[in-house]
Automatic annotation (TrEMBL):
Keywords: Glycosyltransferase, Transferase. Pfam families: QRPTase_C, QRPTase_N. GO terms for biological process: NAD+ biosynthetic process; quinolinate catabolic process. Belongs to the NadC/ModD family. One of its GO terms (cellular component) is cytoplasm. Coiled coil: none annotated. Residues 48-124 form the Quinolinate phosphoribosyl transferase N-terminal domain. Pathway: Cofactor biosynthesis; NAD(+) biosynthesis. This is Uncharacterized protein. Residues 126-191, 257-356 form the Quinolinate phosphoribosyl transferase C-terminal domain. One of its GO terms (molecular function) is nicotinate-nucleotide diphosphorylase (carboxylating) activity.
Length: 380
């Protein structure tokens, strides 16, 4: 039986996560409206401008999140919102809970309702799963950090990261610029880049450029195709713009024998002292090399059970008093397997399950006349 959601938001009195949002985010609201109403609002034509209000109902249990986005959608539409529950509150399951009241012209209420509801439902769903993950980890007595990932929806990252924070988990890096993360592909490509360009393109026709297309599974690199683009000046049809040729014998550039040390040292020269360096590692030896090279965080990717916890302990014991670093566990972590990944030598648990597999909370707006008549209009 799953634990009931905790109402603890980890925020001190007076703190508001909405204050973290950059001024530029409001431009997203205009983009959302442009997507939902790219031309004429036919149905809105029949509604008119009479002042009405609509009740926001929470119809499934979960954590309320996305208040600033909901507010801004209706502000843009010329409406106002009165909240009856603070953000981060737990909406009771198996009930119909009044969450907020929205007031404004009927046409504008209808114009903004789907944009606002979709955003609120998605953000609240992520916050709810995040809260469950955080509560499960705390129930084990673990003092580390539960985090999301960068595997967010393009164009919707800010909302999804915000939902994670409302739920009580760390949003992890926000983008490629906010932390250095060297994954396995970066490591082997570090060595690949050392081969002369001429040796890497020796299979291509004269005057053409080429690049390899790979299927990457863990550290295994399986070359599939070499894609050639025709020489400049050659007239081609769209169907012959790319010519796919099987990649004949394995090319020296494709060997996966990259250097973690080289990658860390190279990136540190340009990233400077202010950015953390996180290295994805598949084994004790790789993690040991990363720490020796100066990594701030080693991510033990897809290590589980005794291998995970034994590796973490050995690294902490070996480098105690010599290097300061954090150990992160990641890869395939779902709610049912979370507790097996936490332990005394694990500092961070990162998972995309908090934002990729979360269902949105069920919310709805119901319009009613301003005189607060007991007769409600149909759900919007």
């Amino acid at each position: 039986m799953s634990l009931p959601l905790s109402g603890d938001t980890d925020l001190r009195p007076g703190q508001n996560l909405a204050h973290l949002l950059p001024p530029s985010w409001r431009a997203d609201v205009q983009r959302w409206f442009a997507e939902d109403t790219p031309s004429f609002d036919w149905a809105g034509f029949v509604v008119g401008e009479e002042e009405q209000e609509a009740v926001l109902w929470g119809k499934s249990g979960g954590v309320l999140a996305g208040v600033p986005f909901f507010d801004e959608v209706f502000t843009y539409a010329g409406c106002s919102v009165e909240w009856l529950m603070p953000e981060g509150s737990v909406i009771p399951p198996n009930s119909k809970t009044k969450v907020a009241i929205v007031r404004g012209p009927a046409r504008q209420l209808l114009l903004g309702e789907r944009v606002a509801l979709n955003t609120l439902a998605r953000c609240s769903g992520i916050a709810s799963v995040s809260r469950r993950f955080r509560d499960l980890a705390r129930a084990e007595g673990w003092k580390g950090t539960v985090a999301g990932t960068r595997k967010t929806t393009p164009g919707f990252r800010l909302v999804e990261k915000y939902g994670m924070m409302v739920g009580g988990v760390d949003p992890h890096r926000h983008d490629l610029s906010s932390m250095v993360m060297l994954k396995d592909n970066h490591i082997w490509a570090t060595e690949c880049s050392r081969f002369p360009r001429s040796s890497r393109s020796s299979l291509a026709p004269a005057g053409s450029s080429s690049f390899a297309l790979f299927a990457l599974t863990s550290r295994a690199i399986a070359p599939l195709l070499l894609i050639h683009t025709p020489p400049r000046g050659l007239t081609t049809s769209a169907t012959t713009l790319l010519r796919l040729t099987p990649l004949a014998p394995p090319h020296p550039c494709l060997t996966p024998a990259g250097s973690i040390t080289s990658a860390v040292q190279t990136v540190r020269r340009v990233a400077g002292f202010s950015l953390l360096v996180n290295v994805e590692c598949q084994s004790l030896a790789e993690a040991d090399e990363a720490i020796a090279a100066g990594a701030n965080i080693v991510m033990l990717d897809n290590l589980i059970g005794d291998e995970l916890h034994g590796t973490a302990k050995e690294l902490k014991d070996k480098w105690r008093g010599k290097r300061e670093f954090l150990i992160e566990t990641s890869g395939g972590i779902v709610e049912g397997g979370l507790t097996s990944r936490v332990g005394p030598y694990i500092d961070i648990l990162s998972t995309s399950a908090v934002h990729q597999v979360s269902a949105g909370c069920l919310v709805a707006l119901t319009a009613r006349p301003l005189d607060r008549s007991t007769v409600d209009c149909p759900s919007l």
